[in-house]
Write a structure and sequence with these properties.
The chain has a single domain, classed as Ribosomal Protein S8, Chain: A, domain 1 (2-Layer Sandwich). The protein is built from 5 helices and 5 strands, in the order ααβαβαβαββ.
């Protein structure tokens, strides 16, 4: 057999049970199903956040102007240092001005779910400095601190640089979803 005969034989073997299409017959092409939406994961995240609200946070524990700082167990100090210095690109932002505690909790849950869907790694959450609050202190700051510390998808967070909101905002580094 020549090389072209070998190629022809290999082609016929590969085609196996394939039959010729008759030109008068209609084919129906089905589109692939859209990717599934993880509604149960979203519901679980909301349930966890609701449970976290059951643990009251004393907002007096965090003083006006105090900086936030957290890194998960096993995360190197250098990661937090680079985050504090603004070395990570900010992929998205959530501004909580005007939100009450429940609205803020749900907004953070939805925002972080969107961040994972978009594979965002570093985001900024603006919780405010409390200048417009009746008690002249940050209302949401302690709650945001508590909520983020309890999430397994949060690698680290810290107060932003002054140009990005200072103690009224936080950089949040998220775990890669690989």
């Amino acid at each position: 057999m020549s090389a072209s005969d070998d190629d022809r034989q290999a082609f016929l073997t590969a085609m196996g049970d394939v039959r010729r299409h008759r030109s008068g017959t209609r084919l129906s092409v089905q589109r692939p199903a859209p990717p599934p939406i993880a509604r149960s994961a979203e519901a679980d995240a909301r349930a966890v956040m609701a449970e976290l609200l059951a643990d009251p946070v004393n907002i007096d524990d965090l003083e006006y102007g105090e900086t936030l700082s957290y890194r998960a167990e096993g995360v190197q100090e250098g990661v937090l240092r680079r985050l504090r210095r603004g070395h990570y690109r900010i992929d998205g932002q959530l501004d909580l001005h005007g939100y009450n505690r429940n609205q803020a909790r749900l907004a953070i849950t939805d925002f972080l779910a969107e961040c994972h869907a978009r594979t965002w790694r570093c985001v900024r959450i603006v919780h405010g400095k409390g200048n417009g609050s009746p008690n002249s202190g940050p209302v949401l700051k302690a709650h945001v601190d508590s909520w983020l510390r309890r999430r397994k998808d949060v690698v680290a967070f810290c107060s932003a640089r002054p140009t990005d909101g200072g103690t009224g905002a936080a950089y949040v580094l998220l775990r890669c979803a690989n």
